[in-house]
Amino acid sequence: MNIRDLFFIPKDQMKPGRLYFLDGLRGVALLMMVFTHGVKNWIDPAFQTNTTLLIRDLVTKLPGPLFLFLVGAAYILSRDARVRKGLPRQVILMRYLRRSLVLLGFAYLYKIIDMAFGVPWHYIRWWTIDILNAIAFCLGGLAVFDHIFRNKEWVATGYLVCAIVIVLMSPLVAAINFPAWLPEHLRNYINGVPPNSFFPFFKAAHYVFFGAYITHCLTTAPAEKPFTNVLPAAWALGGISAVSLIADLVGRGYGFSVVGLVFFYSRLFLIVLLFVWLSYQFQKRVGFGPILLIGSHTMIAYWIHAKIIFIYYRQYLGHTTWAMSFWLLIKVYIMTFVLTFAYINIKKWLLEKRAKGDYLIKGAVLD
Length: 367
Known about the structure:
The chain is globular, with a radius of gyration of 22 Å. With 367 residues, it is mainly α. Helix 1 (20-42) runs antiparallel to helix 13. It contains 13 helices and no strands. The protein has one domain (3-337). The chain crosses the membrane at residues 20-38, 58-78, 99-118, 124-145, 157-178, 198-218, 230-247, 253-278, 290-313, 325-346.
C-alpha cells in the first residue's frame, strides 16, 4: 500500500459526481468543534475579555449549524445514490429510520463508555440532549417528510419551507409550558435549554432541512456550475437579512421580535451557505487533502476528541490560560488525527481482508 493512501483518498477510488467539498467542510467543522470544546471549557473566566469573548462566540457558534446542515446534505446525497440503485422508497425510509435509532443509541452509548475511563457516575451527563441526539431525531424527521411527499413536485421546495416554518415556530415552542406528566427528558428534546438541552429539535431541525434544500439545488445544477440553482436562495437570504436588520434597528423596543428572529436566522443561513461556497472554491483550487478522510469519519473523530478534552484533560477544565489552552489544543488535534487515521486504515484493512476471503470462498465453491 502506498503511504499516501493512508492519509488521502486514492484517485482511483474518487467517485465521479460526488461533492467532495462537503466532506472537506465537515472536516473543517470538526476542527472548529475541537476548538469550541477546548476554548469554551479550559479557559479560566478571569482570562476572558470582551474581545476574546467576541472572537470565541464567533467561532463557537458555527460548528453546530454546519454539522446539522451537513446532515441534510448527506441525506440527499445518500438517498439519491440508493434511488439510482433502484431500491424501493419504503426500503430507503426504513434504512434511515434504523440509522436514526442507531445514532440515538450511540448518543447514550458514548456517555456509558465514560465509566470505562473512570468518570464517576454522578459526573456523567446521562440525559443531556447534545448534537448527536439532535442529529438522530432530525434525520428521522427529514426521512419521514421526504417519504410522505416524495411524489410531489414541490418536495424540494418543501425542505426550505419546513426550515422557515420551524424558525418561525421556535419562539412559540420555546414558550410552551408542558404538563407535569410529560417526562422532562422528552420536553428537553422539544424546547429544552442548557445545560440539560443544547440542541432541542426546534433549534436544530431548520439547519437540517435547509441543508437538504441547498444540496438538492447543488445536485440538480450543471456539474461544472453547481451553485447555479443556489444563487436565488443566496440573494433572497441577503435581501431578507438586510431588510430585517433595518426593520429591527428602526423598531427596536417596539415588539418586532419576529423581525429580529428572521434577521438572526437568515444571517446564519447565509453564513452557512457562504462556508459551503468557500469550501467548493477551496476544494477546486487547493484541495482539502487528509481533511477529506477526516470529514468522512467525523463520528469517530468527534468521539475521540471529546474523550480527550473532557476526560483525559479534565484536570484543566475551567482554569487554564490562553497559552496553555492553545498548547492543549495542538495536542488534541494531533491525537485526534493519529487515532482517527489509525481507525480508518484498520477498518479499510479489515474490509479488504474480508472481501478477499469472500472471493477465495466463492472461487473454491465455483472450482
